Amino acid sequence: MQRIVAPSMLSADFGHLERDTRMIDRSAARWVHIDVMDGVFVPNISFGFPVLKAIRKATAKCLDVHLMIVRPERYVERFVEAGADIVTFHLEAAADPRACAALIRRAGARPGVSIKPATPVGALRELLPEVDLVLVMSVEPGFGGQQFMPAALDKVRELRALAAGLRPELLIEVDGGISSRNAGALYEAGADALVAGNAVFGAANPEDEILNILNS
Ligand code: DX5
Ligand code: ZN
After folding, report:
1. CA of 196 to the centre of ligand 1 (A)
2. Largest CA distance in the chain
3. How far away, in angstroms, is 69 Cα from ligand 2 center?
4. What does the domain layout of the chain look like in residue ranges?
5. Which of 38, 132, 175, 192 is catalytic?
6. What are phi and psi of 50, to 5 degrees?
7. Are 115 and 90 in contact (CB under 8 A)?
8. In tens digits, what is the pLDDT along the chain, a chain of 216 residues?
9. Which of 76, 89, 94, 196 has its CA 20 to 30 A from that of 105?
10. Which residues pair with 66 in a beta bridge?
11. Could you say which of 35, 38, 64, 192 is catalytic?
């Protein structure tokens, strides 16, 4: 099983967006995680298209866009145009999740779906064959720097078992409170990709911290 780290730009220094993106670009991280918040689905507002485009210019790595917005189907094509490689929307936010995933695929990106801590894995059963990735939230979405919720480990195991029958190539990503302290257990539970904001950008040496997560 592959191990992917996706540093979250939400914890980057927005005054030095290019510098921080280039740091990820030369690091061992394979994805760049981009958190888009609308102030409605979550009680916080982050950034949108212009910032995504600026990040796109500074890296060739996979741009992993996490939409925390209501009615994501209105905007997914524009995120693909702005440079997203993966577009992940929230199951709780989409009127028609299957149609939203199809729209993302037709626009040329890989569709992902995310579930909040209170949403059970079983709610994904119908949608699994239609998506390339599931993002399991291990904190309430909205803010970086929160504490990891250990229940996410069981969700990853349950999802891996469910996917074995329905979507064997499914990528499982986990987001929230991840560091080298819990990364090893998450990879072992069946996660392919781990998002890390505070752990990476709060470290004295972010590139070393990325390696620590990968090797944990
Ligand atoms: C939270 C975001 C996360 C956040 C993770 O809503 O989806 O991607 O940036 O930050 P840390 O790793 O600090 O919990
Ligand atoms: Zn995220």
Report:
1. 7
2. 46
3. 12
4. 4-214
5. 175
6. -60, -35
7. yes
8. 789 999 999 999 999 999 999 999 999 999 999 999 999 999 999 999 999 999 999 999 999 999 999 999 999 999 999 999 999 999 999 999 999 999 999 999 999 999 999 999 999 999 999 999 999 999 999 999 999 999 999 999 999 999 999 999 999 999 999 999 999 999 999 999 999 999 999 999 999 999 999 999
9. 196
10. 35, 88
11. 35
Identify the residues whose C-beta falls under 6 Å from ligand 1: 8, 10-11, 33, 35, 66, 139, 141-146, 175-178, 195-199
Sign of the dihedral defined by the CA atoms of residues 132, 174, 156, 152, in that order: negative
**35 classed as catalytic:** yes
CATH class of 4-214: alpha beta
The pTM of the whole model exceeds 0.85 = yes
The Å distance, Cα 145 to ligand 2 centre, comes to: 11
